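At this stage, I wrote out one protein's amino acid sequence and its backbone structure tokens, and that material follows here:
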Amino acid sequence: MDRRAFMKTAGTLCVGLGIGGARDALAQNADILPPPALPGGKTLEEALRARQSIRSYADKDIPAEVLSGLLWAACGVNRKESGKRTAPTAVNKQEIDVWVVKKDGFFLYEPKDHMLSRKGSQDIRALTGTQSYVAEAPLDLIYVADMGKVAGKTDQERANLAWADTGYVSQNVYLYCAVMGLGTVVRASIDLPALSKAMGLGEKQHIIMAQCVGYPKA
């Protein structure tokens, strides 16, 4: 595929994915995402050249359609007939969950239905990392691996694959942010026991990394 058609094709894919609903869907039901905002004619080269880490964010909410596009890019379904996603996982185990943490609560992204499932109403952004800026970012993504699903024959193999599979999701987020004017940075310095407890995670649910997203501060 011509690299200049890459991002345009991504936008066309969305139409065939069954991702629908009115743009005011969030106002009616906080769990339903509107159609995703996609970058259209932006090229892969442009995304790669613009990719960078940003740690300072403006006090500005991310629009619902941009959040929708961000999550679809992260690990949304891009082949409806098979349920496969934009980010690969070893043996297609799909063991990486993306949690969304905002000031109005925290949610689990459900790729199959392209929706958010509310898991709590508390603002736990400050728990998503040890850095001072994490509480100020309008959005923190938490990548959680279900170690009961991940491929691999040994604990080391499973850990390696969980990290690798999370990396694909994180890079998708980086590239989406690069072409949509968003800032982002991935992080691994986290008080894991405290955040896991706040999120109500089970024994086999392991936090791998977190990633801030927001509009860069001028």
The radius of gyration is 16 Å. The chain is about 30% helix and 20% strand.
